[in-house]
Amino acid sequence: MSFIGGGMEIISFKYLYKALIGYMTSNMIFGINSLAEGDFNFSSFYHILIIVIWMLLGAGHQIIANKYNFHAKSAMHGYAIAMTTSTFILLLFILIGQYMFRHDLLADSPTLSVMPLVTIGLLFMYIQNFIIRNGGTAYPTTTSVVTTVYVLMITRLAGSFNRNKTALERRASLSEGTHYVMVLIHFFAGAYITIKLSEYYQFDSLYLVFFVLLLLTFKVWREHSILKNQFGKNVAS
Length: 237
What we know:
Oligomer: single chain
């Protein structure tokens, strides 16, 4: 999943005026810097507005989650629905982004007209980071690679050499540490490949990320189907 996050972040940084749509701290820094420069125009409030939209998405998600009860038919059911939703949102982001680029609708500085596209990107990253969260693993890893991942990686890898731990605990630390190494590698690969493709295909460079997500979505639905059938057989017996 971090491969997908890397691709999205690098495209948003390149075409959406350095908007890292999965990193609100970065947007806060950009926003503070713009305001400090004293130019009180839309560009100055652009990154702050991104944070506001992100918080509204979070609030809306919590309101919906508290109001409606979802009865999952397997442990992967909710995960599969979230994956499917994010797949369609990513496709919409690509189509609108490429249309705006081809028709010169992306100005030299951010304008209000770009906010629908930014909001779609934020919704995608919100689902990836706070609904899907961990890419189906048991580890606390989100799509966007944050500082915590680096710390966890070093801590767990170092723990695998700690002789005060049992052999089982050391193996568990090594396994988790290796997982975080792969998260970073996948994020780097997603960002690097996508930015190189964007030199020729702009937003369409995200189709590689899209097809990766689509394959993962089919995989998750298959796992859901297997678990659902097993549950049905257990109930019948």
